[in-house]
Structure prediction request, 193 residues.
Amino acid sequence: MINNYTEFEQFLTDLKERPKLLLHSCCAPCSTAVLERLLPYFDISVYFYNPNIYPEEEYIKRKNEEIKLLKELDIKYIDTNYENELFKKEIAGLEQEKEGGKRCKECIKMRLQKSAIYAKENDFDFFTTTLSISPHKNSKLINEIGYELEKKYNISYLYSDFKKKDGFKRSIDLSNKYNLYRQNYCGCQYSIK
Prediction:
């Protein structure tokens, strides 16, 4: 188990081959710097599972930006269904929680669980997420969820804190380079506020 960014960097340095990594992506801008960081070390497929995004037009816009970026970079893309009603059911009773609170924890868990299951069923070596690149996301919480799912599904979770070493700043620079749409809210209707 990797516990911090220094251990993460050492892990990457010690890799002898390019394991298969399923990278859950929340959006193209967040994918940019994460892909740049991980591509030298992993055979990556990007998994776009974001039932939280609202409205559906916004979901489609973000999905299309992801596809545009991945075509440019020649990276495998795995599509999923838009399941906003399932998301609402999952977070029922938490709608009024503050951003970053219990609702967000359940949202992250829902998306990472689906990613872990897909990774396990499709013979990936690791799964992880782009979510930790955001300065608004709690990397410690994301990694705790990832490690819980690692144990539950017997699929290795790759530690992430991609905001380190100016990761978020780099994602802004790369978003400009690739002319990507950058949204101004996390995704769900409750985060629009």
